[in-house]
Specification:
The chain is an all-alpha fold. The protein folds into two domains: 3-89, Orthogonal Bundle (Hypothetical Protein Yqey, Chain: A, domain1); 98-149, Arc Repressor Mutant, subunit A, CATH 1.10.10.410. It is 74% helix and 0% strand. The longest helix has 24 residues, at 48-71. It is globular, with a radius of gyration of 18 Å. The chain starts with a helix and ends with a helix.
Length: 152
């Protein structure tokens, strides 16, 4: 079952249940899918890895908004963003923990021969491909910086 089919099924359920939080999030996902499918060069289809990137982008947007709202003491708007993040995350593959992430990154660092923060680009390229959908770019970047700045 594709992401679009899952979203549509959940959308119907949310409509019947009159679940405003879910409806708001699911409609945002549906709109992003339609936009991606109709974009130039998409050919009306999107691949699974593109779906994952799309969901990660939606979550990143909401996390950015959440930070702003929390900084402005807007608890009402921050709560809406948190609710949407929780619903969108249900459609992503299970995220790996910090320890698992560091173990995988150590292996990638050894494979690429990276030894200093100057080699971060090599590691990030390999890590982003290998960890697509399993961890967000910000957490990968933070962990790579930490691992490369420590002397081995």
């Amino acid at each position: 079952m594709s992401l679009e089919q899952k979203v549509m099924a959940d959308l119907k359920t949310a409509m019947l249940a009159k679940d405003e939080k879910s409806l708001r999030s699911l409609r945002a996902i549906k709109a992003a899918i339609i936009l991606a499918k109709t974009s130039e060069g998409a050919g009306g289809e999107i691949k699974e890895e593109e779906e994952i990137r799309l969901l990660q982008k939606l979550i990143k947007q909401r996390k950015d908004s959440l930070e702003i709202y929390q900084g402005q003491q807007r608890k009402d708007l921050a709560q809406k963003e948190e609710e949407e993040i929780a619903i969108i995350e249900k459609f992503l593959p299970k995220q790996i923990s910090g320890d698992e992430l560091k173990a995988i990154l150590r292996k990638i660092i050894a494979e690429t021969g990276a030894s200093s923060p100057a080699d971060m680009g090599k590691v990030m390229g390999a890590a982003s491909k290998q960890l697509a959908g399993k961890a967000d770019g910000k957490s990968i970047s933070t962990a790579v910086k930490e691992l490369l700045s420590k002397p081995a």
